[in-house]
């Protein structure tokens, strides 16, 4: 029960296949109280998923690009709990014309939208909620290794590189207040969002063949466990870190059978 008594806000749940759903499920099993966020038409899907958690939870309205939504969420968390111990940032978006092999043709506005929603939003969310967390709070974000250029990922890859930089600056800014900021760089998983990217299956097929530990794109539990670790006090000495949960894929240069 490494999260016993923790109060966690978890973004990014769309369906029960979402990585964030499995993180919320694991967090509850580890003793945490959980609130989810969603917005617009997707909120109905999130509410259905929320009802399937071990303990059904409420879903707060949050468009992370709307300052008023961020303020309202902070106020609602304060009203319900009086404070917060951790938040999972599982938010990413790039317009269709900025991914799927369209790097050279993507308009500037689409690249900016990908950056704002996928990277700047980490600062926006953490900045709004930091005053609620006090000493010992944890901010965790979902990442995809941005140290190299991936096929089809395009401006989302650029946004993830920005996310990694934002997390380091946040770690520097929030560390003196006792707050930790870390990312989990997950291997590809078969979420609804991922499968919507043209060419995802071809990219994901590299992991089972090359990762030293192997990789199952249908099993998000290792990623959920790592998120819970970073939200727990067991990670109290860790900040500004990118924890790769990808079967070791990032560490090797060629398939083991070559």
Q: Can you walk me through this structure?
A:
The chain contains 9 helices and 7 strands, in the order E-H-E-H-E-H-E-H-E-H-E-H-H-H-H-E. With 258 residues, the chain is of the alpha/beta class. The longest helix is centred in the middle third of the chain and has 26 residues.
Number of helices: 9
Proportion of residues in β-strands: 5-15%
CATH class call: Alpha Beta
Distance between the termini: 42 Å
Given the helix and strand composition, which structural class is it?
alpha/beta
- Estimate percent helicity: 40-55%
**Strand order across the largest sheet:** 3-2-1-4-5-6-7
Major beta-sheet overview: 7 strands, parallel
* CATH fold category name: Rossmann fold
Average pLDDT taken over every residue: 94
Under the CATH scheme, the architecture is 3-Layer(aba) Sandwich
């Amino acid at each position: 029960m490494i999260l016993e008594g923790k109060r966690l806000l978890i973004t990014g749940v769309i369906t029960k296949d979402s990585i964030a759903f499995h993180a919320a499920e694991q967090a509850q099993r580890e003793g945490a109280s959980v609130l989810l966020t969603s917005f617009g038409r997707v909120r109905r899907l999130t509410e259905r998923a929320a009802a399937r958690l071990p303990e059904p939870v409420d879903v707060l309205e949050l468009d992370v690009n709307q300052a008023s939504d961020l303020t309202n969420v902070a106020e609602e968390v304060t009203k319900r709990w009086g404070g917060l111990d951790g938040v999972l940032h599982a938010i990413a978006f790039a317009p269709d014309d900025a991914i799927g092999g369209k790097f050279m043709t993507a308009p500037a506005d689409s690249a900016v939208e990908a950056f704002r929603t996928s990277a700047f939003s980490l600062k926006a969310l953490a900045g709004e909620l930091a005053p609620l967390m006090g000493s010992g709070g944890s901010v965790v974000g979902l990442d995809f290794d941005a140290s190299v250029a991936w096929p089809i990922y395009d401006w989302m890859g650029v946004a993830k590189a920005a996310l990694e930089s934002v997390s380091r600056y946040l770690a520097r800014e929030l560390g003196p207040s006792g707050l930790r900021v870390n990312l989990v760089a997950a291997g590809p998983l078969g979420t609804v969002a991922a499968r919507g990217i043209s060419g995802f299956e071809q990219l994901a097929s590299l992991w089972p063949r090359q990762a030293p530990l192997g990789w199952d794109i249908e099993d998000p539990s290792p990623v959920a466990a790592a998120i819970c670790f970073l939200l727990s006090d067991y990670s109290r000495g860790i900040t500004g870190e990118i924890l790769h949960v990808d079967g070791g894929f990032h560490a090797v240069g060629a398939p083991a059978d070559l």
